[in-house]
Design a protein that fits this description.
Oligomer: single chain
Shape: elongated
Helix content: 25-40%
Distance between the termini: 37 Å
Radius of gyration: 23 Å
Number of domains: 2
Order of helices and strands: EEEHHHEHEEEEHEEEE
Strand content: 25-35%
Largest sheet: 6 strands, antiparallel
Number of strands: 12
Length: 248
């Protein structure tokens, strides 16, 4: 992988410069300001071919952070981004989406998961999700570089008079600080998303980042949010990308 061009001090002009795309670019006489301008220009000039895997982009970014930032900063990014890169595998960077459904959960798997919840409770369903055998896709956090992505364990879609209703359910990532403090939120181990899409693939919905699951004798599943939250978060501007496969 090619190395990024580095700023250098040009004594004859008493200023910092960098060579980008065969052109000498003036930055600033002040080193701190020159570094800031360098990173801005580098971000604008960096290009990746459409077929480049997400994992390669992450690797390139981490190499850059390792040379330009403190080890603690590099470790922070690496903790979240490497696991995500391993998860998406060879997915092309142009196909990366905030909500990515790879497979719809079959009716058979849906009934099996409901049976696990009814017989063993939410803890049994959580263990089943954590096995990773029911992978349906992923959800990327808005704070992608700071928060881990979420693997979607269950994804369903049903056509209704008001549009196509998509529901996603998964176990949510628990970060170190939350686990260490033994926060009350640890009892809310699931995350759920629901949105409705119109014929053009546009819509809106809700997200419940932390939820507790329960099921009554009639098989009705209930989602309970954290008591001190404002409830479900609104999703706006939801839309589909590309064409769907026939088996979806």
């Amino acid at each position: 992988m090619r190395r990024e061009p580095q700023p250098y001090w040009k004594s004859s002009h008493s200023c910092w410069y960098v060579n980008l795309r065969g052109r000498q670019v003036r930055l600033d006489p002040d080193e701190a300001k020159a570094r800031a301008e360098y990173h801005r220009l580098l971000a604008d000039s960096r290009e990746f071919a459409p077929e480049v895997p997400v994992a390669d982009v992450i690797r390139s970014f981490l190499e850059h952070v390792k040379t330009e930032n403190a080890p603690r900063t590099h470790a922070w990014y690496a903790e979240h981004l490497r696991s995500f890169g391993a998860f998406v595998g060879d997915l092309a960077v142009t196909k990366l989406r905030p909500f990515h459904v790879e497979n719809w959960t079959s009716d058979e798997d849906g009934e099996r998961l409901k049976a696990i919840l009814k017989e063993g409770g939410s803890e049994a369903l959580l263990r089943e999700f954590q096995k990773g055998k029911t992978r349906a896709g992923y959800v990327v956090s808005p704070a992608f570089a700071r928060e881990p992505s979420w693997r979607v364990a269950m994804a369903t879609a049903v056509d209704t008079p008001r549009g196509r209703v998509v529901r996603l359910l998964t176990d949510r990532p628990i970060q170190f600080a939350e686990a260490y403090s033994q926060s009350r939120s640890l009892d809310y181990e699931f995350a759920a998303f629901e949105f409705t899409l119109d014929r053009k693939g546009n819509g809106q919905g809700i997200a419940i980042p932390a939820a507790r699951l329960s099921q009554d004798e009639d098989g009705q599943v209930t989602l309970e949010t954290l008591p001190y939250t404002t409830g479900p978060e609104r999703l706006i501007g939801v839309r589909t990308w590309g064409s769907e496969k026939k088996d979806k």
